[in-house]
Amino acid sequence: MVGPYRGLFSAPGVKGFVVAGFVGRMPMSMLGIGVILLIQNLTGSYALAGAVAATFNVSFAVAGPVSARLVDRFGQARVIVPLVLMHGAALTAMMLCARFGTPRWVLFATGVTAGATAISLGSLVRARWSHLLTGSPRLHAAFSFESVADEVIFVTGPALVTLLATMINPYAGLIVALTCTIGGTIAFALQRGTQPPVRHGERRSGSPITIPGVALLSGSFLAMGAVFGSVDLITVAFADEHGAKPVAGLLLGAFAGGSLVSGLWYGARQWKVSLRLRFVRALAVFALGLAPIALIGDLRVMAAALFLAGLAISPTIITGYTLIEQLVPARLLTEGMAWISTSVGFGVALGAWAGGRLTDSFGASNAYGFSFVCALLAVAIGIGGSAWLRTPVAQQ
């Protein structure tokens, strides 16, 4: 790694938790589309597939801050190991229920359990970086690297799970995701030397969501999550309508690929513009990039358009996490970061549900209009409350 990334991984234990964290959160880009592909394959309904995926994401979003607060209170390792084992059992139960044709409500029940026990491993990784680099300018590079790692996951994950589910077996993608999440999370938990210490005796009343800036960020990321959830499902249907369903993963990979490129560029720069202005401008660019996708009818053109639309994702997410790190007390940092994942999870659930219904009713191209409206909503929230994003430190 060069430039600001040079030496970032030289501290003892850093490479270990970074690699384990990468493998453990690989399924975050695989589970949603894997569930959609499995349920749609069994029932032929994108609406039902979107509803089951939404159930998973809603339960994850509701439980996320709770598990994060437990992590802040008891430590990462003591909390995430039992959670990931329960998550693996619930996901296995969902696949078995789908295999043996149990009533539909059972799919929703297992989806709730699997989502409630899922772990926001990205928040835990960033909490370790924050613990190790508090006050250091290298923290910006660390958060940028993690955003790039997320986008590598979102480039490769959807393509992998789509190919496995469509070319091998509908269950294959979820089985690979299950293996990654259990193996990576347990390996991450075993590396206790870099985990943030539990601050015994500190006052823990209140929640980060009561901080106006955190609430504002959560609202914007809720709308962005709706974009992600709807684009995931609608893009599968778009490729299917063009007789190339396996290409859906590549299209979604192009969306994430734009974010990967911009993440590397964004992290390598030293910024003089304040964080709050960067956040609002990135949201605006995101909405502008999504504007043309409802008008495109060619797979190759759609891949290029999604790549361009994805260019604003990483800068928005990197800035959001940096704002959280500066707005939230250290004793509540994991929970504060989890509110971003929670908000995105709620948004993904809404987007998957709405995208499925709109796709079934109006077709994939028309359904993309919902994604664009959600992006505009994210911009409106960010602009309307940007004054709450002023941070108390010099680097804004």
UniProtKB/TrEMBL annotation:
Keywords: Membrane, Transmembrane, Transmembrane helix
Localisation: Cell membrane
Protein's membrane topology: Multi-pass membrane protein
Gene Ontology CC, one term: plasma membrane
Residue ranges of domain Major facilitator superfamily (MFS) profile in the record: 213-396
Pfam families per the UniProt record, alphabetical: MFS_1
Keyword Transmembrane helix: yes
Residues annotated as signal peptide: none
Stretches that traverse the bilayer: 16-39, 46-67, 79-98, 105-125, 171-190, 211-235, 247-267, 279-297, 303-324, 336-355, 367-389
Protein name: Predicted arabinose efflux permease, MFS family
